[in-house]
Amino acid sequence: MCDCLVALPTASATGCTLFAKNSDRPADEVQHIVWSPARHDTADVATTYLRIAPHTAPTLACLMAQPDWCWGAETGVNTAGVAIGNETIYTTLDPRQAPAALTGLDLVRLGLERAHTATAATTLIIELIERYGQGGSGHDPRGAGGPKPYWNSFLIADPAEAYVLETSGGAWATEQVVSVRAISNRTTIAEFDAAHRHPRQPVERFVDARLAASGVVLAEQPVTVAALQAHLRSHDSCAEAGWSVCMHATLPNGEPVEVTASSMVAELRADGMHRVWGLTGSPCTGTYTEYSVPLLAAR
């Protein structure tokens, strides 16, 4: 589970694009905020399950929230000011039948490392899905819950533009953001939702309230960094106990099943001095560390 939000410059208090994401993951997963330096790959790149052709140019350095078991990333910001976050979604196509290929987390990192704009990152992710496919467990297959494959939606932003990209296997749809946008664990592009959403997915219980709460925050313009951080810490966004934006979901016996493992808010600036606030663990008890990208100076 996850929640992503974006406010473009016309809707933000800073006059810059604001991007935010909570990464909700298995309770036993560890994540880190890591810096991936620029590099020049000359051999195939080993992603989580698949080796793919190297990029034809040096990669972009990026700050990422990365689970410790995989190559990919939950969310991040690169030195060009592109921010990407993904969401687990389910559709009428069963992801358990897909062979291991690129995961949504791999696609996030590849977009960050290889794209200078939100438009380019959106196009790149589509091209990678069409060339290599998506598949394989998006959770550590050695973890308590075992393998968990799923499809992905993405929120992709830069200092000027943002896009939603939703996928189901090799099918996809995009929507350009006009002012503000939120995504969560369901299809949200109208035609794609009508064609692909799984009819038995209980979005009314576990997703729609979180998505609506994000919409309320984005409607209170101008949107601020403080408002986004407060939202990512919130527990009042779902009637189902624990399934809030700051997630603490448990089984009936009290055993944790999904928790927020990392949280990130980014200010994507036209002058290139991007700012990122990140933490690992629960936002409600953690303290955001501020970074500047490309300087990576923790403040």
Topology of this structure?
Elements: E1 2-7, E2 17-26, E3 31-36, E4 45-46, E5 51-52, E6 62-67, E7 75-78, E8 83-89, H1 104-114, H2 118-132, E9 151-157, E10 162-168, E11 171-176, E12 180-183, H3 190-196, H4 203-206, H5 208-219, H6 225-232, E13 248-250, E14 256-268, E15 274-280, E16 289-293
Antiparallel strand pairs: 1-2, 1-12, 2-14, 3-6, 4-5, 6-7, 7-8, 8-9, 9-10, 10-11, 13-14, 14-15, 15-16
Helix pairs in contact: 1-2
Q: Number of DSSP strands?
A: 16
Could you estimate the helical fraction of the residues in percent?
Answer: 10-25%
The Cα radius of gyration reads: 17 Å
Low-confidence stretches: none
Query: Based on helices, strands and strand pairing, what is the structural class?
Result: alpha+beta
CATH class label: Alpha Beta
Number of domains: 1
Topology pattern, helix = H, strand = E: EEEEEEEEHHEEEEHHHHEEEE
Distance between the termini: 30 Å
CATH topology category name: Penicillin V Acylase, Chain A
At the fourth level of CATH, the homologous superfamily is Penicillin V Acylase, Chain A
The averaged pLDDT comes out at: 94
Strand residue percentage: 25-35%
Query: What is the approximate shape?
Result: globular
CATH architectural grouping? 4-Layer Sandwich
Q: The biggest beta sheet, please? A: 7 strands, antiparallel
- Counted by DSSP, the helix tally is 6
